[in-house]
From TrEMBL:
It catalyses: 4-CDP-2-C-methyl-D-erythritol + ATP = 4-CDP-2-C-methyl-D-erythritol 2-phosphate + ADP + H(+). Its EC number is 2.7.1.148. One of its GO terms (molecular function) is kinase activity. The lineage of its organism: Bacteria, Bacillati, Actinomycetota, Actinomycetes, Streptosporangiales. Belongs to the GHMP kinase family. IspE subfamily. PANTHER family: 4-DIPHOSPHOCYTIDYL-2-C-METHYL-D-ERYTHRITOL KINASE, CHLOROPLASTIC. Catalyzes the phosphorylation of the position 2 hydroxy group of 4-diphosphocytidyl-2C-methyl-D-erythritol. This is 4-diphosphocytidyl-2-C-methyl-D-erythritol kinase. It holds the Pfam family GHMP_kinases_C. The active site is at residues 13, 138. The keyword Kinase applies.
Length: 300
C-alpha cells in the first residue's frame, strides 16, 4: 500500500498546575506540571517530497525553516530510522502562537506520528515518547493527551484519573510571550525576594477535584508559578483575569507561560455566557470556549 498523505490532529493544553522548582545546575527547573488536553486543535499533514519543507496555514509568526519544531521532529525521526527526512509538512494552525498552550510542541508530536505512519516505521508508543522528550518538555504530553502529571522538566508523564468533562473559555491576548523570557523573569522575581521558591509537589486538592469531577473544587485548586512573571512582563493580563472572575468563572489563570488566559466554567451553557462576557469586555483579541480532557495525537 502506497501512502500519499497522512494527516494528524493534535490538541492544545492548559496547565492546571504548574509548580516550578529552583534552577538546576543544567539551567532547567524541576516541575510539577498537570497537563490537560482541550478541544482546540492543530492539524499536520505529511506528504512525500524531495526534501524537508514546512508550510503553515493560519496565524503569522510560525517559522518555516529547519528551526520549526515539527521540522526538527521529522528530522529526528528520520535519523532514528536511518532515512532522509524527505517530507513536506503542512501545518493548519488553530492553537495560538506563543500563547502558553504548547502549540509548537503539539505540532512536533503530530509530525512524529504523521512521519511514523507515512514512512511505515511502525515505532511503538514508548519510542515515540522518548523521541518526543528529546524535542521538548511539552512534546510527550501532546502524544499522550487526556490529563497527566509531568515531572522532571515535565516530560515524565503519569496519566491522571478524571471523571466527566470540564468546560473552559480561553482568552487570547494580542502578541505572544517568550517561554524562556517568562522563566527568566520568574528567576528574577525569586532572586529579588518577590516570589517564593519551594520544592514542587502535586496538589492533593487538584487530584481529588479531577477524580470526582468537581468543577468548583478544580477552580479553587488551579495554580501557576509562572503567572507572577507573566503578569510582570504583561501587566494588562491582571485586568484580563479580573474580567473573567467578575463574569463568574470558577477559576482563572494564565495558561503556562502565557499570555493566553484560561477560565473554568460550571457547564457548557455557563461557558457560552462567560465567552460572551469576555468578548464584550474588549480585553481579548479572541475568545474560544473549549472542553477537556481530549485524546492526544489522532490520525484523521
Amino acid at each position: 500500500m502506497i501512502v500519499t498523505t497522512v494527516t494528524v490532529r493534535v490538541p492544545a493544553k492548559v496547565n492546571l498546575q504548574l509548580s516550578v522548582g529552583p534552577v538546576r545546575d543544567d539551567g532547567y527547573h524541576d516541575l510539577v506540571n498537570v497537563f490537560h488536553a482541550v478541544s482546540l486543535f492543530d492539524e499536520v499533514a505529511a506528504a512525500p517530497a524531495d526534501a524537508l519543507s514546512v508550510t503553515v496555514e493560519g496565524p503569522a509568526g510560525v517559522p518555516t525553516g529547519p528551526d520549526n519544531l515539527a521540522a526538527r521532529a521529522a528530522a529526528l525521526l528520520a535519523e532514528h530510522v536511518g532515512r532522509r527526512p524527505d517530507v513536506a509538512l503542512h501545518i493548519r494552525k488553530d492553537i495560538p502562537v506563543a500563547g502558553g498552550m504548547a502549540g509548537g510542541s503539539a505540532d512536533a508530536a503530530a509530525a512524529l506520528l504523521a512521519c511514523d505512519v507515512l514512512w511505515e516505521a511502525r515505532l511503538g508508543r514508548e519510542t515515540l515518547l522518548e523521541l518526543a522528550a528529546r524535542l521538548g518538555s511539552d512534546v510527550p504530553f501532546a502524544l499522550l493527551g487526556g490529563t497527566a502529571v509531568g515531572l522532571g522538566r515535565g516530560e515524565r508523564l503519569t496519566p491522571v484519573e478524571v471523571t466527566g468533562e470540564f468546560h473552559w473559555v480561553f482568552g487570547y491576548a494580542d502578541g505572544g510571550l517568550s517561554t524562556p523570557a517568562v522563566y527568566a523573569e520568574c528567576d528574577r522575581l525569586r532572586a529579588a525576594g518577590e516570589q517564593d521558591s519551594v520544592w514542587p509537589q502535586v496538589s492533593d486538592d487538584l487530584m481529588a477535584a479531577l477524580k470526582t469531577g468537581d468543577a468548583e473544587a478544580l477552580g479553587r485548586a488551579l495554580h501557576n508559578d509562572l503567572q507572577p512573571a507573566a503578569l510582570s512582563l504583561r501587566p494588562s493580563l491582571r485586568d484580563a483575569l479580573a474580567v473573567g472572575r467578575a463574569a463568574g468563572a470558577l477559576g482563572s489563570l494564565v495558561s503556562g507561560s502565557g499570555p493566553t488566559c484560561a477560565f473554568l466554567a460550571a457547564s457548557l451553557d455557563h461557558a457560552a455566557e462567560l465567552a460572551a462576557a469576555l468578548n464584550d469586555s474588549g480585553r481579548f483579541a479572541a475568545v474560544r470556549p473549549v472542553s477537556g480532557p481530549v485524546p492526544g495525537v489522532t490520525l484523521v
